[in-house]
Amino acid sequence: MSSESFKMHIPDVIAHRGFSAENPENTLISYENAIKAGTTALEMDIRLSKDNEIVMMHDTTLNRTTTGLGQVRDHDWHGDIDQLLTKAEPRQAIPRLNDVLDLITQPHVSKSLYSIIDIKYDNPIEILDYLQSLLENYSKKHPDLIHRLIIGIWNVEFMKRAKELFPQYKLCFIGLSLSAARSHFLDTVDCLSLPFAALVDQDGQSFIEEVHMRKKQVFTWTINDPLQMKSCVLLQVDGVIGDSVTSLLEHVQHKPRSLKDTEEYLSFIESDTYLQSKRTRLYFYLIKKTMSLASWKLVGV
């Protein structure tokens, strides 16, 4: 490798449910602190309430993260979910997507910051219509949002509807199965988001090359181990999704950027021993197989 060919592929840092390592997930303080820490992007989960408000929530129920109980879909936002707090400290209110949009469109927030809206497969498909209506209203005042929001979809039915409703927005396949990504989404989306285990073998590396040949992006999740962060750099993924923004910035961006020449880069490669262990490779192989089966059973692809 000559000095002329020395070039690092620096992934984006994508804050998983905000800076969730230090803040209650999917809350305004979590997103605010991720932005302050210097994240490249935000990842966020949405659910539809009984009165059709788009609520920031990963789970189908309120039980795990809030002081409420029951399915999000069975509770009104107004007068119910808006009165709840997170279980995690510091206690926070449960925001809606429009609250987060208010945050990221503030003048002090860089327009280079983008967000991935993760719409889980177990949402009612009507959530896409309510999302389209909300974004249509916001984009009138903030037209740059069209280029700053990525719509994340898990299954074929939702993707078909999303392509109809969001022709100007980037679409992202989020899923567990590499074969599903190849068969159903590779040629129809702008980016693909897959778990680390799906990408670490030779097939996964070939997939990343396929995606890049099509001028598209690959994201991976959920990365909280510094050794995995280093491997992500060498896998040449485009975005690394994790809970700790500061740790991700250090290992995914700052350390790689500190390499001065080809010799340091080669040393960086040689020191990456995380995936050399047979036990580690077997572990990820088994996870990958399990996830493919789960994808078929849960999502149908």
TrEMBL record:
It holds the Pfam family GDPD. InterPro entries: GP_PDE_dom (IPR030395), PLC-like_Pdiesterase_TIM-brl (IPR017946). GO terms for biological process: lipid metabolic process. GO terms for molecular function: phosphoric diester hydrolase activity. SUPFAM superfamilies: PLC-like phosphodiesterases. Residues 11-252 form the GP-PDE domain. This is GP-PDE domain-containing protein. It comes from Rhizopus delemar (strain RA 99-880 / ATCC MYA-4621 / FGSC 9543 / NRRL 43880).
